[in-house]
Structure formats: C-alpha cells, structure tokens
C-alpha cells in the first residue's frame, strides 16, 4: 500500500510539472513605426575550411551538379532564404587577401598559404569575379571586407575601381579583359576587419587614423554609392566604440560589432552535440547577453550621433564550438536545436533594435561555425539554423511591432533570463507575423497574445522542435529537425492563445480585419 501511494504521488508530481505555464504578450500593433532592415538576415562567407571550396564553389568540371562552378544544391537553398547580403572574403582572411591574386585565368593565379586557418594552400580560384557573379545569381548585395592589415591604400582604391568603374580607366579595362564588361554594384565596403586583433593588433586611435586615410580613397564611380563600414569592437570593448565615434564620426556609415556565443578563446569551447542541460542554459544566457551589449554600444553611438546616421553592423555572430572530431575542415561544427535557439533569440533581439542595427551577418553560411548548410562531397543538408532563417524571413522589410512580454524566468549560474522570446511585424499586405521561441527545455507554454483591438482572422504557422536539445541533421538522416505545420492556436475574444511545446520555435502568420 505504501509503495502504491508513493508511486501515485510521483505520478501526480510528474503530471503537475508537465502542465504548461501561462505567459502573456501584448503586441502594440498600432505603434509600429520602424522597418526591420532586411540586411539583419545577412550571411558571411570566408575563405576558411570548406566554406568556399566544396561548400559554395566546386568548379565547372566537378561531377557535383553546378552552375558555372557554383553548387546547384547550395545555390537553390540560399535562394530559398532570400539572403539580402553576403560578406566576403573574411574575417581574418580579409587582411591577408590581395585581390589581384584572385583575378584572370584561374590556372595562372598565384597560390598563397592561408596562415589564419590551418596553413592550407589557397589557390585563388574563387576571387572577385566569382564572388560578384555569385551575388548576382543570388540577388543579394555584396559586402566586401578590404585589406587594411597587410594591404595598401592603393590596393584598396584600385579594387573599388576594378569593381565599380564604367570609364576608360586602367582597372575598369582590366576587369573587361577578365570577361566582365559592365561594372558591378558595390554598396557595402568594410575598411578592415577586427583591426584590434587579427587585422593588425591596432589601438583604436591608430585605426581611426588609418580608417580616415583608407576610406578617403574608396572613391565612388559612375553613380555607385558606397556604404563605408569601420572595423568595430569585439563584445564588451566599449572604449573602441567610443574612440571610433569620437575620432571618425560621420566619415563612416557603419560601425561593426562582433559577438560570439562562445565559452572563451583559450582551450576547449565544448562539443557542438554532446552537452547537458546546464551547458544548454549557459548558452541561452550567453546568447541573450548580446542585448545589453548592443544597448551599451548604441548608447555610446547615440552620444555622438543622436540622428542615428551611423549603423551598428553586427557582422559576425553565432555559436562557436570545438571542431567536429574526425572532420579535416577548419571550424566545421554540427548544428543542433541549441544552435537554432541562438539564431531565434538573436534575430528577435536584432529586430527590436532595427533603428540602429542596420545589418548582421551570421558566421558562417556553409560548413563553418553556425552554418546554414553542411556539405560532404556531393551530399548536402540543411541545419536547424537554416530552418530558423527560413521561418523568420517574413520579418525582412516589414514594420516592427513593439510588444510587452510577461513570462517565467530561467537561470544559469547567477543569470536570469526570460523563457520566451518573440518578434512581431506587419508586412506590406497587412499580414502580421509573430515568431516565438520557448527555450524552456522542460515546460510547455500557454501564451496569450493580445493584439490590442486588432481583429484576428486566419492563423497559420510552422513549428521547429525535436525530442532532444542535441537533435541534429546528418547526411544519413537529413530531416531529423525540420519545420512542420503548427496547429496549436485558438482565437477567443480578441486574444490569440498559442500552446507551444517545450524547446520549440514557432512562426505564425495572421490575417487581420477591422
């Protein structure tokens, strides 16, 4: 009898624990004024590991199906995301990259050693023409990282001329000799990368002077307008931002910021797939810490630029784990539901600060760090992070709708953070899109959403979840984690109730009426 009673009490405890908690969200649909910059959903491709070679580029003679050397499967997947901007060639590689080595007949291009990433030989078969042609195929803006660390002012100036000049100039004629008659459009140009570190180990004052010099010679040719981006801070280096804003001011249109969800830069960063609940919660806390970091950098920028003319460009972000065992490709890591949550939470935050955050670029697009896509020879798979970007792309160019959230908290060490993260936007057709992430690993959430007197019509949605936090797609099982239709919604008396499972991400589309 005693054993039966204890078993009953254990069952009761489990039943009570499994009950969903109730969260409340009020969306101020009548207060939307800011447009979510589509460039917040930007990508990053560096000459690192197999991101370029084998990931994007295989060459025209490859048995892997390709279009002019670009993998067809990867092209089609990236087109599906409507990627708005692609950053290249780095990263740390940018400040050792000399662009003239990557033009002309591929068989005649000089090789180099990629000292930043494994000392592998770079054959320069993917260069300026290949990158800009790729951007045209994808319909995205190119974002060029210029070489300040080991390059010259003349080298950067000639690169801009080669790309954008339509005149009878030496560099424009060189481009024509290499098979491209008309110039490309170049909007975004980064003047150096991580100049405090791999880009030259500079002080902020010294870099400020170099920026003023290099950017001066980035000329605008034949109607091409440049958006010049200064190499900004890493994480918590507010002094760098202060110095750049003070010394460079309106000579730049953007200032970069790098923030990785990473345990540190010395020793192991932890496995991408083998982690426990404590590791997961630490990751969520570290990821969400980007919001106060962004706010502090914005406060400094507001001090010198109250009109918000200079954009904050978070052009490197994402998770950074140990390289996958047995894979001989630098910074190749698997991608789980944990990574999907980092993507969802980060994008929700960036949307919120869209008045100052003009671009972000997740690191990186294929086979490196928190990648959208993984390849192995002719095989390709889409990661959970890819699916988050696919679900969230509805926010690009839509009007941001502010909201208030009341929900439970989670904790990791001494940090507390919300169990629910969300974004809402209204598109040009009047449809409202809501993205929700329940990061609680154990508890379902009943979320009551009040749209403040907006009449709700049809509601449809998709959900991304899995049985375990470490669930991921493999080449043997590429569809383990993928979005499916979501039916857990109900509308009553103007309130939308969403029953979202534990560890799940949802994207909802609402039609509205008067």
Descriptive terms for the model:
27% strand, 514 residues, TIM Barrel, 2 domains, 26% helix, 11 helices, eight-stranded parallel β-barrel, disordered N terminus, single chain
Tell me the CATH superfamily of the largest domain: Glycosidases
How many domains make up the 3D coordinates? 2
User: What distance separates the N and C termini?
Assistant: 61 Å
* DSSP summary, beta strand count: 27
Strand order of the largest sheet: 2-5-8-9-10-11-12-13
The best one-word shape is globular
- The CATH class name of the largest domain reads Alpha Beta
Question: Quick one: biggest sheet?
Answer: 8 strands, parallel, barrel
Number of helices: 11
According to CATH, what is the topology of the largest domain? TIM Barrel
The percent of residues in helical segments reads 25-40%
State the low-pLDDT regions, or none: 1-17
Strand content: 25-35%
Q: Radius of gyration over alpha carbons?
A: 24 Å
Class per helix and strand makeup: alpha/beta
Q: What is the mean predicted local confidence, pLDDT? A: 94
CATH architecture of the largest domain: Alpha-Beta Barrel
């Amino acid at each position: 009898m005693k054993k039966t009673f204890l078993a009953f009490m254990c069952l009761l405890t489990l039943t009570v624990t499994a009950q969903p908690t109730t969260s409340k969200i009020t969306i101020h649909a009548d207060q939307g004024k800011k447009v979510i910059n589509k460039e917040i959903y930007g990508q990053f491709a560096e000459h690192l590991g197999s991101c370029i070679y084998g990931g994007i580029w295989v060459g025209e003679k490859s048995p892997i199906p390709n279009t002019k050397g670009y993998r067809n499967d990867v092209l089609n997947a990236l087109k599906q995301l409507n990627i708005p901007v692609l950053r290249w060639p780095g990263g740390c590689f940018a400040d050792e990259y000399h662009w003239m080595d990557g033009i002309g007949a591929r068989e005649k291009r000089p090789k180099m050693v990629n000292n930043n990433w494994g000392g592998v030989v770079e054959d320069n078969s993917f260069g300026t023409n290949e990158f800009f042609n790729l951007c045209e195929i994808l319909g995205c803006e190119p974002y060029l990282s210029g070489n300040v660390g080991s390059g010259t002012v003349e080298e950067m100036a000639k690169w801009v001329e080669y790309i954008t000049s339509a005149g009878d100039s030496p560099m424009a004629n060189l481009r024509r000799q290499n098979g491209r008659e008309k110039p490309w459009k170049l909007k975004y140009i980064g003047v150096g990368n991580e100049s405090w570190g791999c880009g030259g180990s500079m002080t902020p004052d010294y870099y400020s002077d170099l920026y003023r010099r290099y950017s001066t010679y980035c000329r605008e040719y034949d109607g091409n307008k440049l958006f010049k981006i200064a190499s900004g801070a890493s994480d918590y280096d507010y002094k760098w931002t202060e110095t750049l804003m003070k010394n460079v001011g309106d000579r730049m249109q953007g200032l970069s910021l790098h923030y990785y969800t990473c345990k540190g830069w010395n020793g192991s960063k932890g496995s991408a797939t083998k982690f426990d609940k404590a590791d997961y919660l630490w990751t969520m806390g570290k990821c969400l810490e980007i919001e106060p970091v962004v706010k502090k950098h914005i406060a400094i920028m507001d001090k010198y630029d109250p009109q918000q003319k200079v954009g904050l460009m978070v052009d490197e972000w994402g998770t950074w784990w140990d390289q996958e065992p047995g894979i001989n490709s630098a910074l190749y890591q698997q991608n789980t539901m944990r990574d999907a949550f980092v993507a969802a939470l980060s994008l929700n935050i960036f949307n919120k600060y869209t008045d100052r955050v003009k671009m972000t670029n997740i690191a990186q697009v294929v086979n490196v760090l928190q990648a959208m896509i993984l390849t192995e020879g002719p095989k390709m798979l889409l990661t959970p992070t890819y699916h988050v970007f696919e679900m969230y792309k509805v926010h690009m160019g839509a009007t941001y709708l502010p909201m208030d959230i009341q929900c439970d908290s989670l904790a990791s060490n001494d940090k507390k953070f919300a169990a629910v993260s969300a974004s809402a936007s209204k598109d040009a057709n009047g449809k409202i899109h809501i993205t929700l992430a329940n990061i609680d690993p154990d508890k379902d959430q009943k979320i009551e959403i009040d749209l403040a007197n907006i009449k709700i019509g049809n509601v449809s949605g998709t959900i991304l979840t899995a049985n375990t936090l470490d669930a991921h797609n493999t080449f043997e099982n590429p569809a383990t984690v993928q979005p499916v239709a979501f039916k857990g919604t109900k509308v009553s008396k103007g309130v939308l109730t969403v029953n979202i499972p534990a560890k799940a991400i949802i994207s909802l589309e609402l039609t509205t009426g008067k």
